[in-house]
Amino acid sequence: MRKMYAISTGMAALAVVAATAFTAHAESGAPAARTAAHSRTAALPSGYQIVKLPNANVPNFQRRVVYCPSGKYVLGGGGEAQGNGAILVGSFPTDDGRGWIALGRQIGYNDVGISVYAICAS
Questions:
Q1: Which domain holds residue 17?
Q2: Residue 69 and residue 90 in one domain
Q3: Which pLDDT score is estimated for 43?
Q4: Whole-angstrom distance, CA of residue 88 vs CA of residue 50
Q5: Entry pTM
Q6: Is 62 found in the same domain as 104?
Q7: 117: part of which helix (H) or strand (E)?
């Protein structure tokens, strides 16, 4: 629980900083839409890239893994289970920090559609 609290606090602080920066730019006369787009772009880490492993049917509980391009590491990721009664069972980084794993199951079927996404950066 302590680790989750620290992450939540960090995200709240980041939101406050981002909101403060946006307000400061918006009040200086810059168009709000352009300022918001600039703030999002400026906040991205070096080499930011989203990598996707498109949906494919695999046996229930089989892991699907997507890897970041060479020289990049995973910052986060996710998965999607598709189908009637499909459930995403797991979504987590690879042990080496270079990819993302997702797995699922579909109630009443032997296979499930799984997509996997990784957020990568240098």
A1: 2-42
A2: yes
A3: 85
A4: 20
A5: 0.66
A6: yes
A7: strand 111-121
